Amino acid sequence: MRRVICAVAVVAALALAASACGGSDTGTPQQSVAPGDASGEVTWWDTSDATTEAPAFQELIKNFEAKYPKIKVNYVNVPFAEARDKFKTAAQSGSGAPDVLRTDVGWVAEFASLGYLAPLDGTTALVNPEEFLPSPAASGKYGGKTYGVPQVTDTLGLLYNKELLKKAGYDAPPATMADLKKVALDVKSKAGADGLALNVDAYFLLPFIYGEGGDFVDVPNKKITISSPQTTAGVKIVEDLITSGATAKPALQDSYTNAETAFKEGKVAMIFNGPWSNADNLGGKVFKDDPDNFGVAPVPAGTVKAGSPVGGHDYTVYAGSKNLAASYLFIQFMASTESQAAIAGKLGLLPTRTPAYTAPEATANPKIAQWQKPMESAVERPWIPEAASLFQPLVEGYQKLAGGQTATEPMLKDVATAYQGILKGWSL
Predict the structure, then answer these.
(1) pTM above the 0.85 mark?
(2) Which residues belong to the signal peptide in this entry (predicted)?
């Protein structure tokens, strides 16, 4: 689910963002309201991790309510895996939808195309849009209008246990997919741990696919490329990692938690994951007392390039909200440089506003700088309404592949057939 690239290195993009994003896409924001005069009630569905991330966002809400004493925020933490369907159901019925939703970047175009989101151009929600990094800014646009204000951005990196790699004879993480296999096998034979754990999820297949020059789709030409030679070559790397024993036997259910737990407990040396996992990993027994043992590197390169998907979340407003003015002010506060810097400092999540990267709270967290290199190879996803629906067929196919029930070629052909039912009029 990616195309083109405007997600340059986060730090490098700081210098480019103004020219890449521009400020002409939006109208003049509505006249600001004095904090003491603003009133209303906002229900926010937060899809962040309830244990490691939510408390930091709840602290921001307290600060918002202190600034706007006549606005009450009803905070609801909704599990990420349930949020997309739950919001669509509520929006379609016209009952129970939140005023503001923390929306995955891949959902914005879909929700906007269905008429579920309020456009934000010219509102107080969208302030200084020229400060946003290009890819996060692009994720919130659909049909020439802005429907999402970028909250955080992310990508996947190779996370590694420095001590386990050193036991296997390596002072640095693998830089290529070929080296990834070799290092993983050496860890298994020399360090008493598994070398690599895979998350059996479509999003986590993308570094392998991008590395061989493949992708899910070719948007400009409306072509399905999930079964192309390039994509096939990328998935075959994963198949080989599994069959060779370079990776631990993948868990077919709840693989994310299994891989994450094994990594932070020192049972596996390497996993693919994003900056959202920083706090969780640093709380694990092998990193809690030795945070320097936690390494972050770009995903290994395939034969074509190193490539990892752009992810992240946007603030969106339900089109049927009865509290639009208060919702816009809430987003303005939560997406401000100050709020983003605070979240970066506490959680290691990557800001979407360029000034936040130089704010003292953000620079105090060393993980922000460590994610600069992985972000340099981040590949932008296609912001099309069908984007989120492309994951499920591939997840189901990946599970069969990881379970030894199929091979790469027939699996991808089945996925391509499923895509034809989703992308009407697209060619193979």
Answers:
(1) yes
(2) 1-20
